[in-house]
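Re: the multi-chain job from yesterday

Posting the exact lines I submitted so nobody has to dig through the queue logs.
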Amino acid sequence: MTLADLKRGQQGIITDVSSIHIPLKLLEMGCLPGNLVELVQVAPFADPMYLNINGTHLAIRKETAIHIIIETAHE
Amino acid sequence: MSKQINVALIGNPNTGKTSVFNALTGLNQKVGNYPGITVEKKEGICKLPRGVKAHIIDLPGTYSLNASSLDENVVIELLLNKTDKDYPDVAVVVSDVENLKRNLLLFTQIKDLKIPTILVINMADRMEYKGISLNLDYLETQLKTKIALISTRKNKGIDKLKELIATHKELSIEPCLDASTIDKAYFDNLRKAFPNQLLYKLWLVITQDVNFGKTDRKTFEAVEDFKTKSKTDLKRLQQKETIKRYQFINETLKLGQTIDLKSAKDLRIKLDRILTHKVWGYLIFGIILLTIFQAIYDWSSIPMDFIDSSFASLSEWTKSTLPDGAFTNLLAEGIISGLGGIVIFIPQIAFLFLFISILEESGYMSRVVFLMDRIMRRFGLSGKSVVPLISGTACAIPAIMATRNIESWKERLITILVTPFTTCSARLPVYLIIIALVIPEGRILGLSYQALTLMLLYLIGFGAAVGSAWILNKILKIKSKSFFVVEMPNYKLPLFKNVALTVLEKTKAFVFGAGKIILAISIVLWFLASYGPGDDFNNAETIVTEQYASENLSEEELNQKIESHKLEHSFIGIAGHAIEPAIRPLGYDWKIGIAIVSSFAAREVFVGTLATIYSVGSDEEETIKNRMAGEINPILGGPLFNFASGISLLLFYAFAMQCMSTLAIVKKETNSWKWPMYQLVIMSGFAYIVALVAYQLLI
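And the result, structure tokens for all chains:
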């Protein structure tokens, strides 16, 4: 599944990021494999998405989120 | 002369870097531009212990040394260029104690450039609240640096920072980690090919999309025994580098920082639940907008009226005190009223930037961007375009200045180009008087036709902005990497000092930037209206006196007739006559023509010009209105201002680009005359066509 499939309040672990589609800036902000990501809030139509990645809070568009592969974190 | 050292303040956005800058320099700061680009350059002077003076540059905020915008590019260009006069003797990296992990990424990169570096950990006052404790000795050893733990809010730790800057010679210039291990063979090659260059600097130059003066990408292509990699490979390496840096940072923080989550409190979650809510979020944003609108519109009218009347009396006083002559007239009617035309915008601009900087400092602005992005994107704009479009209802000038935080050049350019369509406050006097003349006083469903017309004009303005953005988005072929990443910072109470300095600096920038142009145009206009060729102008007094000799006019009435005659035969009057054939199909006569021509300095001039041309001494609205209502169309007969010509005029003012100051600021922000000229021609051309069609249909 990708980051775009997360529901509000759900968490996941990033397993892969497609480096062609993801700006380096996002990687630098902590969007890297192995890091925990939580969907904090979504705007209407689930776009943009307000995320908490590894303690950094940021918003990205859905078009970017579909290129970030995650697996759900089971508590 | 005491010795001066160069200090560069570097850091991620939202780390309070500017607060540190303000704490170090106070009012000893100035804001300029980097040569050739509109990126702001903030610099200041700070006195240090032992008689050392520091020249401090507040570099634009950046997340790393990999530039993705013009602002970030400035940082790298300075740090890579040892010959730059501002090249830092010491770099101060400002970080936020709550986001230390991410902030340290940039820090480790700067260490690799072998620049003496101090680490500032800011917002120390939040540590207890967030349950964070730090092992500073351990961090200093691991990061090979000196740390200043400070709180700009509580004004703590600044002296320690000053002391560290003064003793910068003792700082280590050793990197924290060896980045070259991400691809050993490649970096060995690089080292062999360029033995005299710093390895990490070479790497940065290779991976950037931008050129760096003399060492650019081409240098590498020219060297035969060195083969650079494909873009995709380079990006993969950069990703590897980022992961490597984070590994080092994670290990360092594992022992250097402890976070007790139990004692951490989070206001963010509670506030975000409301402020970014699908319904409440928009509602609250609407209320905030109304408040800002009200303030800019209403509150600033008091100081504006005061400024207006002060300048009017100053002009009057100058005329009556100084000896008569061309110089006195130029001073009183050209320069003083020109200056008044600049100063009068100060309250609106100050209010606007007061609100904007409070919203930005508090962290709320990011939430607005988040809420609005999806809607704005349909029109080729960004969530970040909302602020300028709202500000545009006060004045397009500060609005265009507020586009600076839009990263994508295409989205920013479109925002700049369409903002002048929004109904600015200068259009209001024009709308009010024409509506009063041509729209009947009746009511529908309890709403007056006149108020509805005014509201419709605001909607037309906003519609034109959004519509043209949509078209521009389709036709502009600008390749600009458009990705949307917005940090959602913590909510903070705005610091008074930061807000005050922003308001002061923006207002100053307006007065000295756009002000020069407004002043110059006013002087030119004054000349054109005060002088004319030939007898008709120069002997106006004799001609008019003879003409009305039998009518027994009072001196005041006669003077008005003379002024009116002079204006008709002045250069600007001749211009009015010259353009009459072009504007007759729109339903206007040469007098309206003059008003339109002079409106190109600023729209609000329209009413004043008509007041002069219709020989109305006082500028009481009722009087002008009656005069205008009494004007007869010279060709068709009947009132000149009828429904058709009135609507035509309203539409013309709604669309035309008639503001020199806006053109000047667009030139400044886009760094070319091309875009303001497009605006002038296309907007005014469109206004002409719409006004023409409206008049011909309605008449």
